[in-house]
Amino acid sequence: MTKRILITGGAGFIGNHLVRLFVNSYPEYQIYNLDKLTYAGNLENLKDVESKPNYHFIKGDITDKDEMQNIFKSHFFDAVIHLAAESHVDRSISGPDEFVLTNVVGTVNLLNAARTHWAGKMEGKLFYHVSTDEVYGSLGPKGAFTEFTAYDPRSPYSASKASSDHFVRAFHHTYGIPVVLSNCSNNYGSYQFPEKLIPLMIHNIKYEKPLPVYGKGLNVRDWLWVEDHARAIDTIFHKGKQGETYNIGGNNEWTNIDLVRRLCGIMDTKLGREAGTSEKLITYVQDRAGHDMRYAIDASKIKAELGWEPSIEFDKGFETTIDWYLEHSDWLNHVTSGAYLNYYSEQYADR
Ligand code: NAD
Ligand code: TYD
Hints:
CATH topology of the largest domain: Rossmann fold
CATH architecture of the largest domain: 3-Layer(aba) Sandwich
Distance between the termini: 29 Å
Strand content: 15-25%
Bound molecules: nicotinamide-adenine-dinucleotide, thymidine-5'-diphosphate
Helix content: 40-55%
Strand order of the largest sheet: 3-2-1-4-5-6-10
Number of helices: 12
Number of domains: 2
């Protein structure tokens, strides 16, 4: 069956993996990638699919309410998978306003556009909202977030995502929009912007720069391979129950310092450096304000109800990821130098 699917934020880290998966797995679907191309959006990530007949790019800004209404009016979408967001906690601490605008107002603009253009024909429609485990707050040494854990966001980023989750559920209950949500743990993998922990550390190890570990490095994150997240979204999109929320996690907890040490060891071997060389670059820096101590996801619902679980062992995914960044130094250099920002104007000048 032909479906016209709007994916927002498809030029970002998780979005490009999801767009690639859908474009390649479902040639019968038309995939519309709507992205503003902020600093985090990079169309170079999608070079391998840009000429496929079922892929379309729309440069658009979800914070522009009229633009969203017009795009919905002209495209007759059957479904939305909404990923576009400001996603970096540290940026949300230095400038929360952009997070409210993009993550809250942007989401409401999309919901309103769906409400207007799906009115009286909700059958077969779906608004899938992609969210984060950070909405649940911070855990002590034990336990894990379930779908019933009360929301307790503690950073401007997580507060904005929590608010957007609430609006998605409110539009479901109030206006009958068919929705589904997922809350996922930290992702790692190729094409992640090197402001986030793993690509930043890979870049700094490679160029022998200090490795900034916040506080004592004892905060814990549950890491999931990004392609497994994309697979989970595919599963939920096709098999999830309307109105439901699914937690997605890697069952793979690491303290930041253990993860960085592990990375240093692997990189020393790959770069032909003496064991212990890169660890010397570790530099403890001032902690992030309000730094959440621990995240862990109980992903038993998605496994029991939809049969999804991570496909790859962390050792393998981590090494594959490191190899990818080492083999794609052009990508990393373009991103760190800002050269990728020219790609859109060069590639799409006459479109
Ligand atoms: P990202 O920052 O890499 O990409 C975000 C994308 O959204 C970029 O392409 C950017 O250009 C686009 N965008 C930003 N503002 C926009 C606007 N106003 N209009 C249109 N497009 C805009 O983010 P990511 O890591 O890929 O995360 C994607 C989604 O998944 C986010 O909603 C995030 O909250 C969620 N999430 C991320 C993780 C993670 O570990 N990265 C984990 C769980 C959930
Ligand atoms: P990050 O990748 O920013 O993801 P999030 O804050 O959404 O979990 O950070 C992952 C962890 O690594 C988090 O505990 C903060 C820490 N961190 C550092 O210690 N140093 C850094 O330079 C960065 C970017 C993060």
